[in-house]
Design a protein that fits this description.
The chain is globular and about 70 Å long. Strand 8 and strand 9 form a beta hairpin. It folds into three domains: 181 residues, FAD/NAD(P)-binding domain, CATH 3.50.50; 79 residues, Alpha-Beta Plaits, CATH 3.30.70; 157 residues, 3-Layer(bba) Sandwich (FAD/NAD(P)-binding domain). It contains nine helices and 24 strands. The strands form eight sheets. Strands 5-2-1-13-24 form a five-stranded parallel sheet. Bound molecules: flavin-adenine dinucleotide (FAD) and iron/sulfur cluster (2 copies). Flavin-adenine dinucleotide binds next to helix 1, strand 14, helix 4, helix 6 and helix 9.
């Protein structure tokens, strides 16, 4: 196939998925490479999304389905780009497609194979709130709804014993231990990098007590607790899975000084958190502890004003790095400096940390493979001095969504449209 008819998209979050669909509709063949076993990216970790407070799964599932059914889009999950040679209009790309050990065409996603597996491990997708087996799907409703086997933990694959339990449980003969990792060579005219973000490890800020006090949660842990396909099926409970919190505090800008920039979305999703916590437990008393409020765009100020009127008491703290949390008689005491610089204390059952967004793990490696630069924070660098550019320093390679820096869903998708316009301009001229 003429390389100018093919585009490689790396990362299947909202930015990568939208770019892939637009390119397919413009008649291009797309290879969509995703390192995880499922597509959808970070948006599907959230129960709902601002500004419309709509269910994230309902927002993303039709896009995921369209991607998986689109004949122009070849989705390569559990895959990584290994090398990129050539030049704009004619890149030579090598992709490593790792063995899933489950035949995607034969599997019906019935889930009979997981319960029988004797090996358990923390489910990182569910923020470690529950466990998963050596054969697993990340969460209910994963797409593709096909499990993957962790070759390091599977007793059969790591040579511990001749375990056959998942094979026996599968009525559709979908388990396939003969699958091998595969190297795929493709030619592509252009590349869109949509590798997204991670959040900082909250244990790095010792005085906040994350990992030490069970009542301290990260924003993504709360997202999974609020999500109907999460570990508590949407019930808001403390870590024991039973206790309903009566009071909660959302601490803004967690780790902002560590990363050195504003994460752009935390103040807005904090308002959404207060809204849905109150919806789940109407009696709960919620506080937001903040220093600055970042409410960009036309929707977010209004959302914040409504939440402050009806759902949460906003408390100003003057010096975020002085805030600390201790546990006293099972309650969490938040010590902070108020607007007079005086130490104040607030006792709550639950604390939510809005952990800062940071570049996705593996960002230096993928930048190196693509031959493109990182900015001083470790995100993919776009052309300096060119306002709103999504072009990298290597012609024919574009950076979109949170791979380029923290942003919300609408801004991520706007960048995808811009990249697709650039790609079409390059390949059709
Ligand atoms: C707690 C929280 C709540 C939020 N709530 C909202 C909200 O309500 N509304 C809103 O508008 N925004 C919200 N956001 C922001 C929103 O999540 C982002 O705007 C959106 O996820 C950006 O999409 P993306 O595709 O750029 O990145 P991601 O969603 O991070 O997707 C990137 C994808 O790339 C994959 N990937 C990474 N590296 C590689 C690689 N080397 N090779 C292959 N694949 C790779 C990842 O596995 C992932 O699937 C929230 C953010 C946080 C942290
Ligand atoms: S073969 Fe591996 S994945 Fe299957 S049940 Fe046994 S340990 Fe689990
Ligand atoms: S591998 Fe078999 S048992 Fe497991 S989900 Fe697929 S069809 Fe069901």
């Amino acid at each position: 196939m003429d390389p100018k008819e093919t585009v490689l998209v790396i990362g299947s979050g909202i930015a990568g998925m939208e770019a892939s669909l637009m390119l397919s509709k413009a008649g291009k063949k797309v290879y969509l490479v995703e390192k995880l076993p499922l597509i959808g990216g970070n948006v599907i970790k959230t129960g709902e999304s601002f500004p419309n407070m709509e269910c994230s799964t309902c927002l993303v599932a039709p896009i995921q389905q369209e991607i998986l059914q689109d004949k122009n889009i070849e989705v390569l999950t559990v895959s990584n780009v290994q090398s990129v040679g050539g030049e704009a209009g004619n890149f030579d790309v090598t992709i490593l497609k790792k063995a899933r050990y489950v035949n995607i065409s034969a599997c019906l996603g019935c889930g009979m194979c997981y319960p029988v597996c004797p090996v358990s491990q923390p489910n990182n997708w569910e923020q470690g709130l529950i466990e998963k087996k050596a054969i697993y799907v990340e969460c209910a409703g994963s797409l593709p709804n096909v499990p993957v086997i962790d070759s390091k933990l599977c007793l059969r694959l790591n040579g511990t014993e001749e375990c056959n339990l998942c094979t026996e449980a599968c009525m559709f003969a979908a388990i396939d231990f003969s699958e091998q990792d595969e190297l795929i060579e493709i030619k592509a005219g252009a590349i869109i990098a949509a590798t997204g973000f991670d959040t900082i490890d909250a244990t790095e800020i010792e005085q906040l007590g994350y990992g030490k006090y069970p009542g301290v949660f990260t924003a993504y842990e709360l997202e999974r607790l609020l999500a109907s396909n999460g570990p508590t099926e949407g019930k808001l409970r403390l870590r024991d899975g039973e206790t309903k919190p009566e009071t909660a505090a959302i601490i803004h800008c967690t780790g902002r000084d560590l990363v050195g920039y504003c994460s752009n979305v935390c103040c807005s999703y904090a308002a959404r958190h207060a809204h849905f916590m109150k919806e789940k437990l109407p009696e709960i008393k919620i506080y937001d502890i903040y220093t600055d409020l970042c409410l960009p765009d036309k929707h977010y100020q209004k959302l914040n004003t409504e939440i402050r009127k009806t759902k949460s008491t906003y408390i100003y703290q003057s010096e975020p790095d002085k805030l600390n949390i201790e546990e006293i008689n099972g309650k969490l005491k938040i010590n902070y400096l108020d607007n007079q610089g005086t130490t104040s204390g607030l006792e709550v059952d639950m604390v939510i940390l809005t952990t800062a967004i940071k570049p996705a793990s593996g960002m230096p490696e993928i930048a190196d493979i693509l031959g493109i630069n990182l900015d001083k924070y470790g995100f993919l660098q776009t052309q300096e001095g060119s306002i709103g550019s999504i072009c990298t320093n290597r012609s024919g390679i574009y950076a979109v969504g949170c791979a380029e820096g923290p942003k919300d869903i609408p801004s991520s998708v706007v960048q995808s449209s811009a990249a697709v316009a650039q790609v079409m301009n390059l390949l059709e001229s």
